[in-house]
Amino acid sequence: MPQKKYTHLFFDLDNTIWDFNSNSYVALRSALNKLLLLEKIGSYDTFFNIYCEVNEKLWELYRHGLMTKKVLSVQRFEESFEKHGMPEIIDGGVVNDAYLSEMPAQTLLVEGARRVLDYLHGKYEIAIITNGFKEVQYDKIRKSELTKYFRKIFISEEVGAQKPGKQIFEHAIRSMNAPKKSSLMIGDSWEADILGAMKFGIDQIYYNPKNEKKSQEDLYLQSLDHNICDISNTEPCFSQGNQKNINNNGISTIIISNLYQLTDIL
Q1: pTM above 0.70, yes or no
Q2: Is residue 241 very low, low, confident or very high in pLDDT (cuts 50, 70, 90)?
Q3: Is there a single domain that holds both residue 219 and residue 186?
């Protein structure tokens, strides 16, 4: 990606700044313990892995408007208990409420997040674009002492549109009075953050700490004229000669494996 002057940075929250995976693990364990279910389920790790698979599947439906928040909130736990061999042990809504109340109490950030935000703070206008539930996202940011970094927080429920839809990106850009050509989206979800921002027409940085290669990602990149600069295992590559430059619309993507690399890019 050639050097260019960005003025506005848009970050995803969960698993880009706030360590959702680790915090979710602790929050759900705490919730089940308070509900006197922890000992009953046997292996917590086994149950948590089942929950993660179910939750991701249902969130995919929710992102595409195929499931309501109310159904998602209840079904993700009831289906998890059923697959764990404990159907009808408890109402899923009760577990969901307990879980969401525990989530904001967890404040672990992705490695490098605070250091990077300290570096970027004051140099750029920074905002959050998240699909998370509004009743917990603000508390997560506040209790993790992140509020000062972000000028605005855009939550899909409040905007009335979700990533990867163009509407939420358009709303955020307009609300921040941000030129598209100097705006950058940074996130860990290939579909929600990267494809969403790409289709809207702004540059993106794909935070991919596990260096995962998804078939949908490879197929998309093969079929799309796009600048790709992968610095996951190398030094940042800014010169035109270091890129796969098959783009004619000026939109660029960088793939990074840790957030510290942002201090070299920005």
Answers
A1: yes
A2: very low
A3: yes
**Rg of the chain in Å (alpha carbons):** 19
Q: Per the domain annotation, does 1 fall within a domain?
A: no
Long-range contacts, stretch 51-58, CB < 8 angstroms, 24+ apart: 51/76, 51/77, 51/80, 52/24, 54/79, 54/80, 54/83, 55/80
**24 shares its domain with 14:** no
* Alpha helix stretches (DSSP H) within the chain: 20-34, 44-63, 69-83, 92-102, 113-120, 134-143, 156-159, 166-175, 196-200, 215-223, 262-265
Top pLDDT among 225 and 230 is at: 230
Token digits for 164? 């990867």
Residue 248 has a pLDDT of: 43
Range of the domain at 203: 8-19+109-265
> 137 in a domain, yes or no?
yes
How buried is 161 (Cβ within 10 angstroms: 0-12 exposed, 13-18 middle, 19+ buried)? middle
- Split at pLDDT 50, 70, 90, the class of 107 is very high
120, 232: one domain: yes
Enclosing H/E stretch for 254: strand 252-256
Residues in contact with 162: Cβ distance below 8 Å, sequence separation at least 6, in sequence order: 62, 63, 65, 131, 156, 168, 192
Residue 122 lies in a domain: yes
- Whether the predicted pLDDT of 73 surpasses 80: yes
Three-class HEC string of 190-236: HHHHHHHHHHHCCEEEEECCCCCCCHHHHHHHHHCCCEEEECCCCCC
Among 81, 105, 129, where does a domain finish? 105
Mean pLDDT of the region 204-230: 66
